[in-house]
Design brief:
- With 70 residues, the protein is an all-alpha fold.
- Helix content is 67%, strand content 0%.
- The chain contains three helices and no strands.
- It is rod-shaped.
- The model has no long low-confidence stretch (mean pLDDT 77).
């Protein structure tokens, strides 16, 4: 432990470091992001991605739209 004491003396008193407050803010932000991701995953599981059944009239609509453009 005594060999670490000279390293502590090398720290410049004029430098600004984030310190404990910076760590606490970073930790709170990390927990908040984790909570948001967990909530998003829960909501995404509820989404139904099934597409409606295709019908003959549904297939003709894109062709009609293309013919009107040109």
């Amino acid at each position: 432990m005594t060999h670490l004491v000279p390293l502590a003396k090398e720290v410049d008193d004029d430098k600004v470091t984030p310190g404990v407050l910076g760590f606490i803010v970073f930790a709170v932000m990390a927990v908040a992001v984790w909570g948001l991701m967990k909530s998003m995953n829960k909501h995404m599981r509820k989404v139904d991605f099934k597409e409606p059944a295709e019908s003959a009239s549904g297939e003709a609509k894109p062709a009609e739209a293309e013919s009107r453009k040109g």
